[in-house]
Each structure stands twice: as structure tokens, then as C-alpha cells.
Amino acid sequence: MAYVIVAVLLGPWYALVSALLCATGLMLSWSSPHAYPIFIAEALWLGFAKRRDIYALYAGICYWLLLGMPLTYLYIGQFTDLPREHMLFAVIKQGVNGLIYISLGAVAILLVPGFWHFKGRLKEKRRRNFSTQLTYIFTLLLTSSLLISILVSNHFFLDKQQVLLKQNLQDSANHLGQATQNYLDNHQTVIANAAHWLSQTGADEALRQQLLSGLHDRYPSFITMLIANRQGQLVAASPESHMQDVSMRDKQYSIQDRPYFTEALYNRKTYLSSVFLGRGFGSDPIVAISAPFYLGGEQQAAGIIEGSLDVSHFISIEKQNIDHQQQSIVLIDDKHKVIYASKPLKLAPLSEFNYAPSGKSYQTKLDMLNLEDLSRDSPEYIFSRHRLDNGWQLYVLEPFSPLLQLAQRLYLNTFLILIVSLLFAFYVTKVVSKLLTGPLEVIASKFNKLNKEEIQEQLLDEHSPLEVFRLYQKLVNSKQQLLRHQLELEEKVAIRTHELELANAKLKHLAEKDSLTGLYNRRYAEQRFGGIQDFCERNDQPIAIAILDLDLFKQVNDNYGHEGGDECLRAVAELLRHHFCRDIDIIARYGGEEFILILPQCNVLNIEEHLEKFRVKLTQLVITCPQGKRSFSITTSIGAIVASACFSENLEDWVRQADINLYRAKNAGRNRISLSILTPATETGTQEQI
Ligand SMILES: Nc1nc2c(ncn2[C@@H]2O[C@H](COP(=O)(O)OP(=O)(O)OP(=O)(O)O)[C@@H](O)[C@H]2O)c(=O)[nH]1
């Protein structure tokens, strides 16, 4: 968890250091270096995944499936003694463990305040959509809670199974141990009673044989029985045929060297031997029970009676364990030699009972052993033992593999449940996020192009959450208000624009026109002349410029007042507008009682006539003074020139020439026209007047 958190918060290189420390700790605790490659690779993987802004859990799942589990498999196969059939389990367990600590680390990161997050080397953070975020959080919580709950319940279940198993084994060991004890005690009592009976009945050999055969019939667990005298010579045997076999084979046959003989005779007690191979009557593994008998009140024993227990008869003990058929038993004597062992164990009687303690690789408190040397494929057993009064031990063994298989099944189920749950989580989250974000997306897309009519329509269906519906209503209200404001604004702008246009027109009028006469002013005439001259020059056309100066205007003012003068100026202007009515002509008030006419593209031949007509019209014009209703007329002197447009681009040059003519006209007696047509020769300096 430590290096998962470091990888996500601080990036791959800090994670590498952290994983080194963590793996060292694990190595010291497990004495296994496998943590180094697996966890260092994992830390780097998670760190680099973070740089690509991949969620830790998704990166972790990929790591364990693609690298972590294969690496674990290789490691277990190469460097451990784990039986092959448990490898898959170990690999899955490691993968599940990996997912647990990654998901816990990822949950912890969710709780870490934002300012701890390392952003220095991070590539630009992608903005994730709601569905992706929801899927991750849902998957993370599901994975961590599911894994923890399943593993905790598995743990308790397996723990309970182990306790039950241990208890069963203990019960079986106690029960079967007690049964073995009773079995031995019974047979020892039989031999002791027989010895007592021999002591009572005296030395009649025929009677002894009869007793022995009768006893043997009643206790078939004895494979053979015998009675020997103090010298170790047989006096009776059962089956009786053994007696003839022995006497025929060796007249001097004696059992003096047998422990069951010496122990019983000299120590004068009922004796139970360890397991040994019989000789004389056969060569079966047997346990001898012997007891001394006495004759005629002698202190010394007169001989012994002995019964050889057939060790295979201990199967009767095993049969008592009918309820636990999976359990096996091993009965060993005080020298650790096998007296009896259940068939599946394949332990021969008299073999050394060697076993190695095992189970270190499993987290279990059960007592476990391995019957052979701890090698890969040797079966492991859980065991319990019972010590008998004579030092013998009864082991009850149960194979460990069913419990292990149960644990494996649980882990495999956990793994499968996890995968199914993840798929389910993806599906559910998609549905949920669609339920949540669908209406928002509809609102977002529709509001983009929403107009007033569309707002009235109901866009959201009845499944949309209340909060989203309220948001929708607020947006609709806002949009309606906005549209209202927009309309009001548009109206205001239209009014303002109209006012502005009027003001502009007024300004333009003021800037271009003469307020008294309504004609263009001098400034306008000067501005326009450049364009007109340029146009005519390119088309090689002449321009006529005429300056009109009203004659003796001062007298008009004097005689009729300024109102009369102004009215006169307005009347002249009106007449000018009517007479020079071509669109391209420019008529402007040049100053005081002076007017200028700019007449482009004029006909040189009839321009004078045109001016003359105006002059005559003016003389005929009757001007009525607004005050006093007196009428008068006026004349004008006109100085004009006609020249090619290339004469000059400055109006002043043209006006200067026209002024000269005006001066001439004034001097010549006023009310006349003085016109010059400037030819190229005259344009350079001299004038030619026509
Ligand atoms: N009423 C009125 N008089 C103006 C206006 N502008 C100039 N005047 C007068 O026009 C008169 C021009 O007189 P002058 O320049 O002496 O010339 P004139 O009396 O016309 O004599 P000649 O030009 O030599 O024929 C002056 O008395 C100016 O006051 C105007 O806008 N209105």
C-alpha cells in the first residue's frame, strides 16, 4: 500500500525507492527475495501509469494479469518447493492480494487532500467525463469492499474448518487411542489370567495344551500362543501343529533369549513387547504379551505363557473410526517402529516412523507432517496423536489437500466473483451515469440552439432526476429572461442607431453644407475636387470652374437689411440648383456673396452659353424681401475658366485663374461673364481669352 500511494502521489522514481524499502522488509520477514522483482516492477508500472494519468486500480489489474502473476508463477516454479498442483492457487492468491492492497491504496488516495498530489512531472491532466469517474469510483469501492468482505469471510470459514478438523482429529486420536489401550489391556489381562490359572492347576501338560488351544480359540487376535518352562523349552503351543514343527526341527528349541521370556520370568510381571519379527512359529510382525506362572507355591516362576498379537488385527481399531473414513491411523511402539498403519499410508510394520514437520508455507495452526522427506510431491497430513500408557503412540492423520483444495476453490471463486462483479460494475455504472448525465447532455446540447418556441417544449422525460429537472427549469427561466432582455436591447439599439444616423446625417450636413443656402460649402468643394480632377484627367476631359460674385451686394444689405441679403443669397442658390442640375456638377457657396461652380466633363463650345443663360435668368429673378415685402433683383459677375483636367490638381490654381476673369468682368461693368479656355500653351503661363 505504501509504494502504491507513493507511486500515485509522487511518481515512479519515488515509488522505486519506496518499493525497495518495502521489499527489503518483506524479504526479512519471508526470507524470500521474490518481493524485489515483483514489487519493484509493480511500483514502476503504477508510477508510469500515473504519468499517463491512468487510474491506479486499472493499472494494477493490468499489471497483475500481464506481469505480476506470470512473474510469480516463474518464481514459484524455479525457486520454491511448492507442489505443482498448488502453483495456480499461489499465483491467484498473490494476484488477489495485489488487487487488495492496490484498491486499498487507491481508496486511501481518494481521501488524501488535493495539495499532496504531485503534479510536477505529470503530463497534462485529461478532463475525464462523468461516466469514467463514476465507473472508476464505483469499481474501486466494489473491488475493495468485495475483496475484503470475501477474504474476511473466507478466512473465518477456513479458520472454522481448521478448528473443526483439529477437534475431529483430536477426538479420533483420543477415542482410537483409548480403544487401542483397552485392546492391549484386555489381551494383557487374558494372558495374566491364563498365567494365574496355570499356577492354580499345576503341571499337567495335556491340560496346559488344552487350556492354550481353548484360549487361542477365544482370542483370535493372537497369531500364536505358547507356554514355556523355566528353561525356555516349549511345553505347549497354539496352533498345536507348531509344537510338532518345532520339536521335529530342533529338539533343543528354546525361547530363553526372547525378551518376552526373560522379562516375564525374571521380572515376574506381565510383559508387553515392542513390535518385532516372529521367529520359530513364523516370521510375521508381532507384539508379544507374556506373563509368568508359578508351581507349588515356589517363589521362582516355573515358566511363562505368551500370546503373539497379530499386528494386522489392529485394523479392528481403525474400523471403529467408521465416521471418518478420510482419516488414517499409525500405531508406533516406544522405539518409533510402525506396529500398524492404514493401508493408504503404505507404511510397513516394523519400519521406522519417520516424518518431517511441515505446513510452514501455509498460514495454519494445524499440526502437519510429511511422511517422507519434504519433497515436492509428497502428501502432507494434518495429525493428532495419543500416547498410550506403555509409551506407544497412536497417530491419526488426515490429508491436508482437501482443506487446501477448499481454500483454492474459495480463492478461485473470489477471483471469478471479482471479474464478474467488475463487468457488472461497468454495466451498472454505464446505466447509472447515462441516467444522470443523459438529461444534462440533452439540456447542454438543446440549450445551445434553443429559441423561444423550443423552450416551451418539454425536453426531459419523467425519469430525469428532480435536481436536473429543477436545473432545467431554472435554465429555461434564465433563457426566457435573456431573450426578453435581448429583445429590449435590440429595440434600444435600433432606436439609438436611428438617432445616431440622424445625428451623423446632421453632422455631415453641417460639415458639408452651408446653413444659409443649403448649398455645399467651400470645404466640401475643395474635398471633392481632387476626385473629380483625377477622374477627368484619366478620361482626358476638361473641367470648367466658375466663380460667381453678386454685383453690389453691399447695397442690397444696405437697402433691404441683412434679411433681404440672406433671402437674396437663398434665391440665387435655388436658381443655381435648378440651372446646374447635372449630378456631377458641384455648386457651393465659396464665401460671402461668392459661389463656385465645378463643372466637369463640360462641353467647351457651349459652356459660356450655359453660364450666360444663368446670368440672364438671374437678372429676371424677382427677390422679395421678407420684411416689408419689397422686391428687387440682382445681377452677378462670372469669372470662369475651362481647361484640360491636367491643368492642376489644386483647386486654388483654378480659382486663381477664374478670379482673374471675375476681376475682368467686374472691371468691365459687372453683370457679365469673363471666360478663358486654357490651351496647353496657356496653361503653362499665358492665357488666351475667348
Ligand atoms: N446679407 C448678407 N450679406 C452678406 C453676406 N455675406 C457677405 N455679405 C455682404 O456682402 C457685401 C459684399 O460687398 P463687397 O465685397 O463690398 O462687394 P459688392 O458690394 O458686392 O460690390 P461688387 O462686388 O464690387 O459688385 C458686404 O457688405 C457683406 O457684408 C451674407 O451672408 N448675408
TrEMBL record:
Q: Which UniProt keywords apply?
A: Membrane, Transmembrane, Transmembrane helix
| Pfam families on file | GGDEF
Listed transmembrane segments = 55-76, 96-116, 136-158, 410-428
CDD domains to which the protein is assigned, alphabetical:
GGDEF, PDC1_DGC_like
EC number(s)?
A: 2.7.7.65
Q: Mind listing the GO molecular function terms for this protein?
A: diguanylate cyclase activity
Q: Which cofactor does it need?
A: Mg(2+)
SUPFAM superfamilies given in the database record: Nucleotide cyclase
Where do the GGDEF domain residues begin and end? 541-678
Q: Which reaction does it catalyse?
A: 2 GTP = 3',3'-c-di-GMP + 2 diphosphate
For this protein, the record's NCBIfam families field holds: GGDEF (TIGR00254)
The name of this protein is: diguanylate cyclase
Q: Which organism is this protein's natural source? A: Shewanella salipaludis
Q: What is the lineage of its organism?
A: Bacteria, Pseudomonadati, Pseudomonadota, Gammaproteobacteria, Alteromonadales
